[in-house]
Amino acid sequence: MSIMYRIMNSLLLLLIFVPTQNALGAKWPKPTATFLTGNLPSGGPVSGLPGDTQTWQDTAREAAINWNAAQGIFTLITSTAIGNVINCEVSGDNSLSFSYTECDNSSFGDSLLAVTRNWSPSNAPTTIIESDIIFNSNKIWGIYDGTLVFSVQDFRRVATHEFGHAMGLAHTTSASALMFPTASNTFLPTTDDVESLESIYKEEKASGGSTTYLLLLALGVWRLRLISMHKKAD
Length: 234
Ligand SMILES: [Zn+2]
Hints:
The chain has helices spanning about 5-10, 55-70, 155-165, 190-200, 210-220, and strands at about 30-35, 75-80, 95-100, 110-120, 130-135, 140, 155, 220-230. By secondary structure, the chain is an alpha/beta fold.
């Protein structure tokens, strides 16, 4: 990685602790994106909760469906294909995966449940061309709705929250919204979340971006945006 890349990355890591208050201003050229779930483990959680009968991959699909059912402006598609996953690099695939470390093998720290990295070309910083969601393997994960269970993180609501970032949503100051930076008993998108999404895409008229995408991939110059979900204070 170039020195320029590393500088940008270290600066943007600060965003973890300074949640933005408004939409990030970046969006997909078309209001749809396909995420690959095949890099998630084939099984499911071992948390002792009833959701242990479910799989990571099916649950990730359900998280996407949570968004699709709540609004009609952006369509999240999931595929069970195995993607090209390279931490902190553009890979060409939108993927979900678990990892014990963050970028460059740095620790997630205790407060981070997951991170979403949205990538934009350096000369088109408001255009998202790739998004990768990485869950913190150091946490104990389960699958459940409703009230948060102490010490067991709910994979589905965190995935739904991260999909919000993946579509371009920033954190909200509304404590009852899914996009609040701290995990809460809210496990589905709320009116606040949907209105934020509509504010980004309501005027969207898709323009073909595939040619530009491939050209910029060859140039290898990227802007990294890093946004994340925090753990509720114990
Ligand atoms: Zn977040």
